[in-house]
Amino acid sequence: MGLKGQSVPDNLRFLRILHNIGATSPDKSLTIEEISRWILIDPQKVRENLEELIKNDYVNVNRDGDTEKFHVTARGIVKVMSMYS
Amino acid sequence: MKICMLTWEFPPRIVGGIARHCLGLSKALAKKSHDVHVVTLEFPGAPMFEEMEGVKIHRVKIELGHPDFITWTFIFNHFMEKLVAILNRSVKFDVIHIHDWLTAPVGITSKYYLNKPLVSTVHSTEVGRAQGLHSPSSYLIDGIEWWMTYEAERIISCSISMKWELQNHFHLPSEKIIVIPNAIDASKYERKISRENVKRRYGIEPHERVVLFIGRLVPQKGVEYLIRAIPLILQQHRDVKFVIAGDGWSKSYLEDLASSTGFINKVRFLGFISDSGYADWLVQNAKRKIQELYSWEAVAERTIDVYEKICNR
């Protein structure tokens, strides 16, 4: 009986990266394309991850016309920190 | 004394016990007329500077980022160093106090340019958290922890068992480590709690007893051992509900694990809670033997027996 089989789920790994690259407030929010370039993941996959994280209130979206920008919420920051400490 | 306390978590940025430990300690020091400056990280909604019961809290904006956690840690340490240097123009610090490896780089650098002693509180170690060193990052963190204990004038440990772990793992002289147990404000717990109301709130029948786990839902906290033990416990005690309070990345795994026992109806996952409660038994992970803050709170509630080894069966 050990800890095997437990690993950080993919969407939380994604959240962790979004946090570490600094998208942690509305003024530092990033577009899907910017996130995709930062972490070398296909934009469609980025969108899928973001949608799941928004559902859990870990990520917020700001809309400015046609532009959508995303950042990690306070709840998301605490979630990320819980993976480290 | 002018104290510079460096911590990556401080309320409202709360993850584990470090934030509450630093809050309690800084307020207690300020009450004793020390000039306490806490340097910590920004958090949504929190001001970049505030004063709380005499404690001056300075929050650092992290201006750069990187996907890798260790790199990110060194980046925020850089911004903390910058703030400590700015503060030093107006405050002549007498001591620098860091909490765990996360602020070790800024603490050690500050020690040299301020020419002041460094005190380090070690709340946990990488080898304990990860139950061994299994990755390059873990080896690096372990190395930083050793470096932190080497550079510190004094090391504070919150339990005797952690002192032993530090002595053995980092080969430290006993006299370098001081044990100062975590503490709570017991006056906050001198109140009546209605067991019936607490049980009703969480869908527990009045006659049922409550087994409580409090902590982050991550592997090192060991809650999976409790969940795996549920069928065994229920064989002997049918009228028991298991209440798991806390959040963490392995929550989904643990919920699935609870379902797989066939007794999910006996388990309540509450998520993060800040309100009061009560339990008949509090379960702690005996593998790490750290004196968690909540165990003192449990004692203060006077309604809980603390069982340490139930999950090691």
Can you describe what's shown?
The complex is a heterodimer of chains A (85) and B (313). With 85 residues, chain A is of the alpha+beta class. Chain A is 48% helix and 14% strand. With 313 residues, chain B is of the alpha/beta class. Chain B has an 8-stranded mixed sheet with strand order 3-4-2-1-5-6-7-8, sandwiched between helices.
Labels describing this entry:
heterodimer; A: 85 residues; 48% helix; B: 313 residues; alpha/beta; Rossmann fold; 2 domains; disordered C terminus
Which geometry of chain B do the CA atoms define?
globular
Helix content of chain B: 25-40%
CATH architecture of the largest domain in chain B: 3-Layer(aba) Sandwich
Strand order of the main beta sheet of chain A, please?
Answer: 1-2
Beta strand % of chain A: 5-15%
Please tell me the overall pLDDT of chain B.
87
Global structural class of chain A: alpha+beta
Instruction: Report the major sheet of chain A.
Output: 2 strands, antiparallel
Number of helices of chain B: 10
Radius of gyration of chain A: 13 Å
Unreliable runs of chain A, pLDDT <50, ≥5 residues?
Answer: 1-5
Q: How many beta strands in the DSSP annotation of chain A? A: 2
Summary, kept brief:
The complex is a heterodimer of chains A (85) and B (313). Chain A is α+β, with helices and mostly antiparallel strands.
SSE layout and pairing:
The complex is a heterodimer of chains A (85) and B (313).
Chain A: H1 10-20, H2 32-39, H3 43-55, E1 59-64, E2 67-72, H4 74-82
Antiparallel strand pairs in A: 1-2
Helix pairs in contact in A: 1-3, 1-4
Chain B: E1 2-6, H1 17-31, E2 35-41, E3 49-52, E4 55-60, H2 69-87, E5 95-99, H3 104-114, E6 118-122, H4 126-129, H5 136-151, E7 154-157, H6 160-170, E8 177-179, H7 195-201, E9 209-214, H8 223-236, E10 240-245, H9 251-260, E11 267-271, E12 281-283, H10 293-301, E13 305-307
Parallel strand pairs in B: 1-2, 1-5, 2-4, 5-6, 6-7, 7-8, 9-10, 9-12, 10-11, 12-13
Antiparallel strand pairs in B: 3-4
Helix pairs in contact in B: 2-3, 3-5
